[in-house]
Amino acid sequence: MKSIPLKRNLTEIAAHTYDLLVIGGGIFGACAAWEAAASGLSVALLEKQDFSHSTSANHFKMVHGGIRYLQHGDIFRVHESSHERSALLRICPHLVHPLPIVIPTYGYGAKGKAFLGAGMTVYDLLTFQRNTGLQSSRRIPQSRFLSRGELLRHFPGFNSTGLTGGAVFCDGQMYNPPRLALAFIRSAVNRGAHVANYSEVTDFVMSGNEVVGAKVKDVFSEDTFEIRARMTLNTAGPWAHRLLESTLGIALNPHPTFSRDLAFVVKRRFDGPYGLALSSGTKDADSIVDRGGRHLFVVPWRDYTLVGVWHKVFNKPPDALAIDNEELEAYTTEVNQAYPDLDLSVDDILTVNMGLTLFGDEQDQKAGELSFGKRTQIIDHQKEHNISGLITSIGVRATTARGVAEKVTRIIIKLLVRKVRRSDTHKQAIFGGDIPDIERLQNQAIRILCNDLHRDSIVPLIRNHGSNYLKVLDCVRDNPELKKTFMKSTVIKAEAIHAIQEEMALKLTDIVFRRTDLAVASRPDPTALRDCVEIAAAELNWDDRRIKIELNEVHEVLK
Ligand SMILES: Cc1cc2nc3c(=O)[nH]c(=O)nc-3n(C[C@H](O)[C@H](O)[C@H](O)COP(=O)(O)OP(=O)(O)OC[C@H]3O[C@@H](n4cnc5c(N)ncnc54)[C@H](O)[C@@H]3O)c2cc1C
């Protein structure tokens, strides 16, 4: 696979007229850029901060297989999620793997084995094609049961009153969400797309009632540019409708409601591979089958356990997103009520992940019963507001971003009146994902590199970079010092150099939070941070004042 480095050049971007300009470098924008480039369109993508700095890096990492939508009777979403889970397991096996989840079973009613077993059989039948083209370690097994004893062995101290065992279904899990978005962006660039981070769209360029591009501000220099495009796609997530209101004066109807979704990360609590679904106190207003409260999940992820997800309607600007200790205390109490032996306290929380996701109608939300966002909104502004050349797409789940990109690109191609080849991004490996067998690649890498790198660094290197991992080590030839890790972390110094030279990391926060595992779920060691900023300063010509600013920004995020 080609490995074209990401180079930021707004002057060059302003010199072109693109088929498609994508606004926003979260997972939805990243997938759209890849889909459009793979379909043969000329594409530019602009992101006002760093790629995937927002919700797309701060979620629960699940790749939903759609089984829960059976409860809503939503067969469309069952198919959509299962299809996208398979696609991700196929096209980036290094970044997505299967995740088995246990639902505890009780008695003979809606929480019993017979009832759940019937649902799981329907699900398995509906998704019978889920393993097409998947390597063995990435296949989704049939749903099955655990005995009571097995469940308690995996989850010691779990409330055993009335427990009959557990039903096991399988979702997928992302190893590294920001690197997943980056892999889509790099795939697009390999197909000729131009991308730039720290480039904020401030307005649209109009020709009568037609959007013909966007005005862009370089966040570093404050220089402004006009980027020309035949079509513009607004994938600015929770900023999307605000951008439309502030520039074109148009309001979406219905007005999108967002939820502050929140999950947190604690040290690994269980050794086994299973996640656990716990019944919470909140009801799901859309469910057609009442099985008690909504599920909270406690799932393993690397050396950690993820706990979530909580939802709260939030209609302030995204930059006002906040959480206080009281709320965190309420959330840990809710988990402890469902599983007292977990004995979680706010002090156990290493990282809070939160962001805004599209929610159901605000009017529908009753106390203790929440109606969730179901479908991604795709708006053709020609139809809705008599403004041509502009589409807005606001996504609900990162899982479906590739599939949504496929739909949106088809609409765009139709509007461009263009005959193009049909893309096959559901089976075409993305950047770093051309790996016939991930286990074999990992073992091979351990054999090749074991004299130079510790095993603890090799596995994340493969999982983060996939087939491109040797490219990360290019700089080591000239400077063997770069094989060393940053203090106690698993990150080798070459990864920071690679992030700057190949992956458009322009700030210390980009390297620390999104390109490497330096702050994967906990605070980076101060010496590691110091070493990293020195490497970045040498590469990016930072003086002492800039070094101080960059370190402060990292500390600000860690607060
Ligand atoms: C706690 C939590 C848990 C979740 N769990 C899951 C899960 O397990 N599985 C799942 O599938 N989904 C999950 N989600 C949902 C998922 O995270 C979102 O659906 C997805 O990340 C949205 O991506 P996006 O690209 O639309 O938005 P964003 O990631 O917000 O990206 C939008 C981008 O647009 C940029 N932008 C905005 N305005 C401009 C402008 N004027 N110019 C240029 N750029 C601009 C922003 O800077 C931002 O980077 C979860 C969400 C949360 C918060």
Q: Please tally the β strands and state the result.
A: 19
What helical percentage do the residues reach?
A: 25-40%
Overall 3D geometry?
A: globular
Give me the number of helical elements: 17
The first-to-last residue Cα distance is: 40 Å
Q: Report the CATH superfamily of the largest domain.
A: D-Amino Acid Oxidase, subunit A, domain 2
Mean pLDDT: 93
Q: Give a quick account of the main beta sheet: strands, pairing sense, barrel closure.
A: 9 strands, mixed
Summing up helix and strand content along with how strands pair, one would put the structural category as alpha/beta
Q: Count structural domains.
A: 3
Instruction: Bin the strand percentage.
Output: 15-25%
What is the class of the largest domain in the CATH system? Alpha Beta
Global Rg = 23 Å
What's the CATH architecture of the largest domain?
A: 2-Layer Sandwich
